Amino acid sequence: MHIVLVEPEIPQNTGNIARTCAATRSTLHLVHPLGFSIDERQVKRAGLDYWHLVTIEEHPSFDQLREEYPDAEFFYASTKAPKNHTEAHYPENAFLVFGKETKGLPEELLHDNYDRCFRIPMVEGARSLNLANSVAVVLYEALRQNDFKGLQQEGHLTKY
Prior knowledge:
This protein is of the alpha/beta class and 160 residues long.
């Protein structure tokens, strides 16, 4: 899977998302401008010791990302979406796109791709979930739909 963060603003969210990407072998795409430096201490600390496991690609703009992956299937997270995240059907290498923490994705982008927009159900009046939590919820649904391919699905006790 591919996680796309369009202009993320909070380094701790990006660090947490990088850790989730590392644990799921998902590629993290960061679309500029970023609200921080990828080398900031908060980003590194949130990602803990998982940085060697994550693939990160940086892109100057969302349009350039789309040009680099012309055949990719993109899905867009938004509280303005007409259906929830479990109604979408995610292929194995889907690009799951999330907007900046304070504004989300541009409405024009949503309008142009409305059939591929999804939302996470919440109570009325709740603006949104934390970005890192939203990515985890949606990513694991997409992985579940693909039978968690390539992921360890059984744990083992260490002392017994």
